[in-house]
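Design a sequence for this backbone.
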């Protein structure tokens, strides 16, 4: 059976994380053993889909020693992937948890430069897989034009895949102008999309609806951090609250949410269930330290709560 979900990560990274009691300058800091993870938006989404019991293929360019490590980590995690080998060294990102304050310092390094031809080769790999859902998440690497996701949107239409995009800035604007299936902007990304400095909560539904009416996408799920999300379709909108949990780290919440939603779609769930599963995954991700995504048991527990009580805690003042 062909894979239904493909993720595209044009700017992958080898994520390295460690911890230290106190972060102080000038001194030699004794850190805890390094943890290595395969990272980058789409790759995180693929890992999260796997945790939900779904199937997908992660497509990305990678190079050098870090690229090999990244592929090795995916193999170890039994994540299906197709890697386009490129010259150069895949970037690494470093995050340091200061345990005394529970503050996380995230050092993000410049991505490996790739050419438009190489990115197009990634699209050819995707075409050969023939996905029903194509998810692109994360930033564009140096070397690609800001409009590259617009090309991906055109490509997705041509191969009959529903395109889901989670990115920001110019890259998001350009793709939205071309039209896609599902957008998951956070509040600041939505504000930028509609050309407003900062939307107030009661303007969110109108802003999302405007995007749909402009033909930019079919469904918008605006993620609202601890306040959950707002699901908007042409027929109306609905608030999905986020259950209250003991927050550890919000790293990976957005990718987990996207993974939950695309998995739900691939399972034939309706939009409300899709948004509930997305919120459950995003919130479950906040229950874990650092780059760790979510435990599936937490997702099902939170989803159960949302389905039983979610409607009582809805914000109605949109
Ligand atoms: N503090 C929190 N408490 C509970 N749930 C949260 C919290 N922060 C995030 N979430 C959950 O994760 C989802 C996505 O979070 P958010 O709106 O912060 O996305 P984002 O800004 O795209 O995040 P990212 O930085 O990962 O890209 C939310 O809709 C919510 O379900
Ligand atoms: Mg995000």
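Sequence:
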């Amino acid at each position: 059976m062909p894979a239904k979900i493909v993720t595209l990560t044009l700017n992958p990274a080898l994520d390295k994380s460690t911890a230290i009691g106190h972060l102080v300058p000038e001194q030699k800091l004794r850190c805890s053993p390094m943890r290595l993870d395969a990272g980058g938006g789409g790759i995180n989404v693929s890992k999260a889909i796997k945790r939900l019991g779904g199937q997908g293929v992660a497509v990305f360019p990678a190079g050098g020693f870090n690229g090999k490590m990244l592929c090795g980590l995916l193999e170890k995690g039994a994540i299906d992937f197709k890697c386009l080998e490129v010259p150069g060294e895949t970037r690494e990102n470093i995050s340091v948890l200061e345990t005394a304050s529970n503050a996380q310092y995230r050092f993000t390094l410049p991505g490996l430069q790739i050419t438009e031809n190489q990115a197009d080769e990634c699209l050819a790999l995707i075409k050969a897989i023939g996905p029903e859902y194509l998810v692109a998440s994360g930033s564009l690497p140096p070397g690609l034009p800001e409009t590259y996701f617009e090309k991906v949107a055109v490509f997705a239409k041509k191969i009959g895949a529903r395109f889901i995009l989670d990115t920001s800035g110019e890259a998001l604007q350009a793709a939205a102008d071309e039209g896609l299936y599902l957008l998951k902007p956070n509040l600041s990304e939505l504000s930028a999309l509609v050309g407003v400095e900062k939307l107030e909560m009661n303007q969110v539904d109108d802003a999302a609806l405007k995007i749909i009416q402009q033909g930019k996408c079919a469904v918008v799920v605006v993620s609202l951090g601890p306040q959950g999300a707002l699901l908007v379709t042409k027929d109306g909108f609905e608030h999905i609250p986020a259950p209250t949990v003991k927050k550890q780290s919000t790293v990976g919440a957005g990718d987990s949410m996207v993974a939950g939603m695309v998995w739900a779609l691939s399972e034939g769930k309706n939009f409300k269930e899709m948004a509930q599963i997305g919120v459950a995954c995003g919130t479950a991700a906040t229950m874990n330290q650092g780059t760790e995504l979510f435990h599936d048991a937490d997702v099902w527990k939170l989803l159960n709560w949302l389905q039983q009580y979610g409607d009582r805690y809805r914000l109605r003042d949109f």
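The first strand starts at residue 5 and ends at 8.
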